Amino acid sequence: MSSSDKNPKVDFFFNKASQWQEEYGKLRSVLLGCQLTEELKWGVPCYTFQGGNIALIHGFKEYCAIMFVKGSLLPDPQGILIQQTKNVQAGRQIRFTNIQEINGLEATITNYIYNAIEVESAGLTVDYTKDTEYDIPEEFQARLDESPDLQAAFEALTPGRKRQYITYFTEPKQSKTRTARVDKCMSRIMEGKGLSD
Questions:
Q1: CA 189, CA 42: separation in Å to the nearest integer?
Q2: CA–CA distances in Å: residue 89 to residues 98, 100, 102
Q3: Which CATH class is domain 3-121?
Q4: Over the stretch 78-133, which tens digit does the pLDDT of each residue have?
Q5: Which of 17, 27, 69, 113 could form a disulfide with 34 if both were Cys (CB 3.0 to 4.6 A apart)?
């Protein structure tokens, strides 16, 4: 795929000042080279295949990463897939701390991307461990209904983390405030983080 397949809605993520700007650019070109569609979801670049989420690019202080949405289903012959926390059931990351690591692993990354596309194309799903049910506010339920990946990420959280989010989302009296809180927390939920992590 050419650079013309870059989605302008995602450009801000790559253009904003970041310690990982060069690394993000390289990961973007590798993902776009695998015939994936670039979209903006949860405030980060998300790469999809025929509507199914394959991978996200995200960064933290210590590293940047490709996060495979169904990474737990991928073969990992190189032993490079990382479970972000023990509570993350589906997503797996490949982490990088510099551009040289990405360049050195480019062929391997590409293979993992194609494996992820195969998993998605085959309709494979992650078997999530169910936790205690909670009364979910309608604003949050609407977002969960829109996004199976958000639903999966929320289900993967510990009961305590779920309780924190539900309490935080239900506190405001106004629906728009509840919606704003939900939207603000979606990327944290996708990363397997609790409200106070």
A1: 9
A2: 27, 29, 25
A3: alpha beta
A4: 999 998 776 677 889 999 999 999 999 999 999 999 999 999 999 988 877 655 55
A5: 113
